[in-house]
Design goal:
The complex is a heterodimer of chains A (about 120) and B (about 850).
Chain A lengths: L6 H17 L4 E2 H11 L11 H10 L3 E7 L5 E7 L1 H26 L6
Chain B lengths: L1 H21 L4 H12 L2 H41 L1 H30 L10 E7 L1 H10 L3 E15 L4 E9 L3 H5 L5 E2 L14 E4 L1 H8 L9 E4 L2 E8 L13 E4 L7 H6 L3 E7 L5 H18 L16 E2 H6 L2 H33 L1 H12 L1 H37 L14 H33 L13 H37 L9 E7 L2 H6 L1 H17 L3 E7 L11 E2 L1 E2 L12 E2 L1 E5 L3 H5 L5 E2 L13 E5 H7 L9 E3 L7 E7 L14 E5 H4 L6 E8 L3 H15 L5 E6 H8 L1 H35 L1 H9 L4 H30 L15 H27 L3 H7 L1
Parallel strand pairs in B: 3-8, 5-7, 16-21, 18-20
Antiparallel strand pairs in B: 1-9, 1-10, 2-3, 2-6, 2-9, 4-7, 5-8, 6-7, 11-22, 11-23, 12-22, 13-15, 14-19, 17-20, 18-21, 19-20
Helix pairs in contact in B: 1-2, 1-3, 3-13, 4-11, 4-13, 4-14, 4-23, 5-9, 11-14, 11-15, 11-23, 12-13, 12-14, 13-14, 15-23, 15-25, 15-26, 17-21, 23-25, 23-26, 24-27, 25-26
The chains are: A alpha+beta (about 120), B alpha+beta (about 850).
C-alpha cells in the first residue's frame, strides 16, 4: 500500500481541509462546497464529487461541522453544513502544518540542479 | 434516514445537471457528465446510509442511558420528598419479598435442589428388611444396578477420653460408592470390611473429626471405641455428607456372617437403597420386585412370613422418600407467600395510584413540556423500580433473618434442614421477583396516570377529576376487601393456635419441673452383657453420689423419662379379671421402672397406700405402684391397694401397694395415662442399657447438669451422659412442633394484618386524593371538618367491615381443619371470632386516620379558585 499512492489518498486529509476552508465563508450545502473547491483549485484537484459526502460525515463525527436541513437559493430542500469552533481550530492547525510542509518541499524542488 | 441521504444526493446531482444545461449541454449529456463527476452513486449512497444508521443507534443508546440516569435521579428525589409513602411502600414490598425469599430458601433446599449424590434421580429405596432379604433381593433384581443397606446405630463412643452417646449408622460396604460419595481423607470401606471376623473399621463425619480430633490430618489409623469394641478410623467424610440423617457421626460396616442364619434372616430393620440400572425404569423395578418376594419364600422354607408378605413394599425414588410429606406442605406455603407478594404488589400499586393523583399537576406539566407519554411512563416505572430495589434489599435482609428463625424453630426431623440457606439461586429468585414486581406494580399506575393527564390537559384546571376514578376505586376497594378477608382468616386461625399453645403450656404435667434436672446415662452393650452386676453397682454408685451432692434434695433413676421419649406400655395380667395369658391381655399405657426416691424427687404425691421403700428388695415380695387412671380402669368401684397384677407368661403376681396421680407421659395432650410403676430393685432384669437420673436441686439447674456429668465420669469414663436438661426444658422441647406451627401461622397472620392495613391506607389515600376538591367544596359550603373526616373513616370502616364479615365466614369453615392442632379452645371460639373483627375495625381506623386528616385540610379557598 505505501508504495502505490492513489490520488484519493492525498485527498483523504486534504479534502477535509478544503471543505472546512470553504465553510469559512458561511454555511453551505454539498453542491456549493464542490463548486467552491472546483473554482478555488481551478479544477486542478479533480475530486470525485461523490467522495465529498462521506468526508462531510467524518467531519461531522468529529464535531468539526454541524448540519441542518434548510432551503437552497432556488427554494429546494438541502442539507447545509456549518463549521464549528473546533473545526476552525483544526483547520488552523492543519493549515500551518500543510503550508510549512509544502514550502519545504517547494524549496527543495527549486534548488539546483533544476529538475527540468 | 435513507430518504435524507437520497434527498441530499439528488439535490447535488440536479444542481449539477442544471448548471451543465446552462453551460449548453443537452439534457442527456448534462446528466451523464454530472454522474461522471460524482463517481459511483450507489456505493456512496450505501456508505452514507450505513453511516447514518450506525450513528443513530449509538446516539439512541446514549440517550437511553442518559434518560435512565436522569429518571433514576428524579425517582430518588421524588421518593425522598414523600417519606411516608416511601416507607409504607418499601416496607410492604420488603415484607412480600422477604417472606418469599425465606420460604423459597426452604423449598429450594428441600424440594428443588437435587440430592448431593451422583445421578440422584436414579436412586431408589425399597423399604426395609432383614440382611437375608437384602442379600437375596440384591442378587435377584436386574433393574437395580446396585443395592445397599443401612441401619441406624446409636451407641456410646469412646475416643480415648470420656464416652459420648453418638448417632451413627451401620452400612453395607457398597453404600458410599452407590451414592457416589468418597471420604475427604482416607478411603471408603473395602468389600471385605463387611466380612465376619475381619478387623473393625469406621468412617467418621466431618463434624466429629473437627470436634474430637480438632481436624487433625493424621486421624487415619487412630482408634475409637464403639460400644466397648475398638474400631480403626479409615476415612473422614465431607462436611456435606449426612446420609442417612443429619445427626450421623460415624459409619460402621454391616457385618454379615453367612453361617448365622438367625442373624441373616432374623434381624429386620435394614433400610434398602439402590440405584436403577442404566436403562431400567421405576415401573420395571417395581414389577420385578413383586415377582421376587414369592421366590424368596420358596427359597427359605424355614423362614416363612406368610402369603401377605411384602405385599405393600415397593420401589420409591429416594428424593420422594426423603422429602415425603414435607413437599406438599412446602408447596402450599410457597403458594401462600406468592399470594402475599401479589397482595403486596396490589398495595403498592394502590399507593402509587394515590400518589399519581396527588402529583397530577406535576405530571401534567412534565407531559406538556414535551416529555411524551412513553417518556413519562418510563419515568414512573423507573421510580417504581427504585422502590422495588429498596424493597428487595430490605426484603433479602428480612428473608435472611426469617430463614435463620425458621431453621431455629423447625421441629426435629425436617428433611434436609441442614441444607437450608440463602443460596445464589435464592438471591436470583429475589432479584427476579423484585424486578417483576417493580414492573407489575409500576406499569399499571403509570399508564393510568399518564392517560388521565393526556385526556384532561389538567395544566389548566382539571377540576372535573372530582368524579373520575370511580371504577378504579371500586376495583381497589374490592381488592382491599379481599385482603382484609384473608387477613381476618389468618389472624383468627393464629389466635386460635396461640390460645391452644398457651393452654397446652398451662397443662400441669403432674410432676415438678423447675427444680428437677434429668440426664440420660447409657451403658455400652458389651459392658452390660459381660458384667451385669458391675453395671448395676455402677448405677447404684451414681445414685448414691448424686444424692450426696450439695443442694440436692432427692435423686432417683427411671428407665424412660416422661415427655422425653416414648414410655412403652405392656400387656398385663390382672388377678381375677385377665389371668389367662393365652388370650388377649389388656394393654397398660405405660410402665416405668423406678428407684425408691422417684416419686419424692419428681414431686408426685402418693394418693393412697405407700411409695416404694428399701424393703422392696430383690428377694422381697414383688410390689407395684399404679396411677389413678389405672386403678380406676380395673377396679372402678373397689380399692386397688392389695390387688395383684402380673406380666404375661408365668411370672409371680405383683401386689399393688400405692396409688399416685396420673402424670403426662407421651405428650402434654395425654388424656389418660394408666401407668404401672415397678421398683428397679425387683425388675432390673428388664433393664435395656439406659437409665435416666433425675435430681431435685436447690441450686442452679444448669450448673447441676455439669456436676452430674462430672460425677458420672469420675466413676466410669466409659459411660456417656447425654440429654442433660431440666424438666422444664424437656417439656418445652416436647412441644416444638406445635410451637413451630403456631409461630409460622402467627407470622403469616401478622404479615397479612400489616398488608391489610397498608391496603386500607393506600386506597383511602387514593380516595382522598381523588375527592380532594369535593371535600374542599363541602368545607367551603359549610360542612364541618369533623364531618369530612367522618366521611373518610366511615368509608374505611365499611371496607374493613365487609372484609371482616367475609373473613369470619371463611374462618368458620377453615378453622375446622385446624381442629387437630387445637387444644382447650373450640374451633369456633366466640371470643376470638368477636375480637378479630373489632381488631380490624381499629386497624382500619388507624390506617385511614392520616388520609382522613389530609381530607380535612383540603383548602376551600384554593378549591374555589381552581374551579
Amino acid at each position: 500500500m505505501p508504495t502505490q499512492r492513489e490520488p484519493g489518498d492525498l485527498l483523504q486529509g486534504t479534502l477535509g481541509i478544503l471543505i472546512l476552508k470553504s465553510l469559512l465563508l458561511g454555511p453551505a450545502h454539498g453542491y456549493a462546497i464542490s463548486r467552491w473547491i472546483e473554482d478555488a483549485t481551478r479544477d486542478v484537484l479533480r475530486i470525485e464529487e461523490g467522495s465529498l459526502y462521506p468526508a462531510l460525515r467524518r467531519l461531522e463525527d468529529r464535531a468539526w461541522v454541524t448540519s441542518e436541513w434548510g432551503l437552497s437559493e432556488n427554494n429546494r430542500r438541502a442539507r447545509f453544513y456549518t463549521i464549528t469552533a473546533a473545526g476552525r481550530k483544526h483547520l488552523r492547525d492543519e493549515a500551518t502544518v500543510w503550508l510549512r510542509y509544502s514550502q519545504a518541499v517547494t524549496r527543495v524542488l527549486r534548488t539546483d540542479p533544476a529538475i527540468a | 434516514m435513507p430518504a435524507d441521504v437520497d434527498d441530499e444526493l439528488a439535490f447535488h446531482l440536479e444542481m449539477r445537471v442544471e448548471r451543465n444545461i446552462a453551460l449548453g449541454m443537452s439534457a442527456a449529456e448534462a446528466r451523464r457528465e454530472a454522474i461522471e463527476r460524482f463517481g459511483d452513486v450507489g456505493s456512496v449512497r450505501a456508505a452514507l446510509v450505513d453511516h447514518d444508521r450506525r450513528k443513530h443507534t449509538t446516539r439512541q443508546r446514549a440517550e437511553y442511558v442518559a434518560d435512565f440516569v436522569q429518571d433514576l435521579k428524579f425517582g430518588v428525589r421524588a421518593l425522598r420528598r414523600s417519606p411516608a409513602f416511601t416507607i409504607a411502600a418499601t416496607l410492604t414490598l420488603a415484607l412480600g419479598i422477604g417472606a418469599n425469599t425465606a420460604i423459597f430458601s426452604v423449598v429450594n433446599a428441600v424440594v428443588l435442589r437435587p440430592l448431593p449424590y451422583k445421578q440422584p434421580d436414579r436412586l431408589v429405596t425399597i423399604g426395609h428388611g432383614s440382611t437375608g432379604e437384602y442379600l437375596a433381593v440384591r442378587d435377584r433384581l436386574h433393574a437395580i444396578a446396585d443395592l445397599a443397606a443401612w441401619t441406624p446405630a446409636t451407641h456410646p463412643v469412646d475416643i480415648g477420653g470420656e464416652a459420648v452417646r453418638l448417632n451413627g449408622a451401620a452400612i453395607t460396604t457398597n453404600l458410599l460408592s452407590l451414592l457416589g460419595v468418597s471420604p475427604i481423607i482416607g478411603h471408603g470401606f473395602m468389600p471385605t470390611d463387611g466380612n465376619y471376623g475381619n478387623a473393625n473399621v469406621v468412617l467418621i463425619s466431618h463434624g466429629f473429626w473437627q470436634r474430637a480430633f480438632a481436624g487433625a490430618s493424621d486421624v487415619i489409623g487412630r482408634k475409637i471405641s464403639i460400644e466397648g469394641s475398638s474400631y480403626t478410623i479409615v476415612g473422614v467424610m465431607p462436611s456435606s455428607f449426612h446420609y442417612p440423617s443429619d445427626d450421623v457421626e460415624y459409619w460402621q460396616p454391616i457385618i454379615v456372617n453367612p453361617q448365622n442364619l438367625g442373624q441373616v434372616w432374623g434381624i429386620a430393620g435394614r433400610q434398602l437403597i439402590g440405584r436403577l440400572a442404566a436403562n431400567a425404569t421405576l415401573a420395571q423395578a417395581r414389577a420385578e420386585l413383586q415377582s421376587v418376594w414369592p421366590s424368596l419364600r420358596r427359597a427359605n422354607p424355614l423362614w416363612d412370613p406368610g402369603p401377605d408378605y411384602r405385599a405393600h413394599t415397593t420401589v420409591t425414588p429416594l428424593q420422594t422418600e426423603l422429602v415425603g410429606s414435607a413437599r406438599a406442605l412446602l408447596w402450599m406455603l410457597f403458594g401462600a407467600t406468592l399470594l402475599v407478594l401479589l397482595i403486596a404488589c396490589v398495595n403498592v400499586a394502590n399507593l402509587l395510584l394515590a400518589r399519581a393523583v396527588m402529583r397530577e399537576r406535576e405530571l401534567a406539566v412534565r407531559a406538556a413540556l414535551g416529555g411524551g407519554r412513553s417518556r413519562l411512563v418510563r419515568q414512573l416505572v423507573t421510580e417504581s423500580l427504585v422502590l422495588a430495589a429498596l424493597g428487595a434489599v430490605l426484603g433479602v435482609m428480612l428473608g435472611w433473618l426469617a430463614v435463620r428463625g425458621l431453621v431455629a424453630a423447625m421441629p426435629a426431623g425436617m428433611p434436609r434442614a441442614d441444607e437450608i440457606s440463602m443460596s445464589g439461586a435464592v438471591l436470583a429468585f429475589a432479584l427476579a421477583i423484585s424486578i417483576g414486581t417493580g414492573l407489575l406494580f409500576g406499569l399499571i399506575p403509570a399508564l393510568r396516570a399518564t392517560r388521565a393527564n393526556g385526556s384532561h390537559s389538567s395544566v389548566a384546571g382539571g377540576g372535573r377529576r372530582a368524579t373520575v376514578g370511580g371504577s378504579h376505586l371500586r376495583i381497589s376497594g374490592a381488592l382491599v376487601i379481599g385482603e382484609v378477608a384473608l387477613a381476618v382468616m389468618l389472624v383468627t386461625a393464629s389466635l386460635l393456635l396461640v390460645r391452644s399453645f398457651a393452654a397446652l403450656r398451662a397443662i400441669e404435667p403432674g410432676f415438678e419441673t423447675t427444680h428437677v434436672v434429668a440426664a440420660r446415662i447409657s451403658v455400652p452393650d458389651a459392658r452390660f452383657t459381660g458384667d451385669t452386676q458391675g453395671v448395676l453397682a455402677f448405677y447404684q454408685n451414681v445414685l448414691d453420689r448424686a444424692k450426696a451432692l450439695p443442694g440436692v434434695r432427692g435423686a432417683a433413676l427411671v428407665d424412660h423419662l416422661p415427655l422425653a421419649e416414648p414410655v412403652w406400655g405392656i400387656a398385663a395380667r390382672v388377678q381375677g379379671q385377665f389371668e389367662d395369658f393365652t388370650h388377649t391381655l389388656p394393654m397398660i399405657d405405660h410402665m416405668q421402672m423406678v428407684t425408691t426416691g422417684y416419686f419424692a424427687t419428681m414431686g408426685i404425691g402418693v394418693v393412697r397406700g405407700r411409695a416404694f421403700d428399701l424393703t422392696d428388695r430383690g428377694g422381697a415380695p414383688p410390689v407395684a405402684v399404679v396411677s389413678q387412671s389405672l386403678a380406676k380402669r380395673f377396679w372402678p368401684n373397689g380399692d386397688a391397694i392389695g390387688q395383684r397384677v402380673g406380666f404375661p407368661y408365668a411370672s409371680p403376681w405383683i401386689t399393688i401397694v400405692g396409688i399416685v396421680p396420673d402424670t403426662k407421659q407421651d405428650s402434654l395432650r395425654d388424656t389418660s395415662s394408666a401407668t404401672l410403676y415397678v421398683p428397679w430393685a425387683q425388675a432390673s432384669r428388664r433393664f435395656n442399657g439406659e437409665l435416666w437420673l433425675v435430681a431435685r436441686t436447690t441450686r442452679d439447674p444448669a450448673a447441676s447438669g455439669a456436676t452430674i456429668r462430672r460425677l458420672v465420669h469420675d466413676i466410669d469414663r466409659a459411660m456417656p451422659v447425654s440429654d442433660v436438661r431440666t424438666m422444664d426444658a424437656v417439656i418445652s422441647d416436647s412441644v416444638t412442633k406445635s410451637r413451630f406451627t403456631t409461630l409460622l401461622v402467627a407470622a403469616f397472620a401478622l404479615l397479612a394484618l400489616a398488608l391489610g392495613a397498608v391496603g386500607i391506607y393506600g386506597v383511602m389515600s387514593y380516595l382522598v386524593g381523588e375527592r380532594r376538591r369535593e371535600m374542599g367544596i363541602r368545607i367551603a359550603l359549610g360542612a364541618s371538618r369533623a364531618s369530612v373526616m367522618q366521611l373518610v373513616l366511615l368509608r374505611a370502616a365499611w371496607l374493613a367491615g365487609v372484609g371482616a364479615a367475609i373473613g369470619i365466614a371463611g374462618a368458620m369453615v377453615a378453622t375446622r381443619s385446624l381442629r387437630q392442632w387445637l387444644y382447650g379452645v373450640s374451633a369456633t371460639d366466640p371470643a376470638t371470632f368477636l375480637l378479630v373483627p373489632v381488631l380490624f375495625l381499629a386497624v382500619a381506623a388507624l390506617a385511614s386516620s392520616a388520609p382522613a386528616l389530609r381530607a380535612t385540610r383540603a383548602d376551600p379557598a384554593g378549591t374555589l379558585r381552581e374551579e
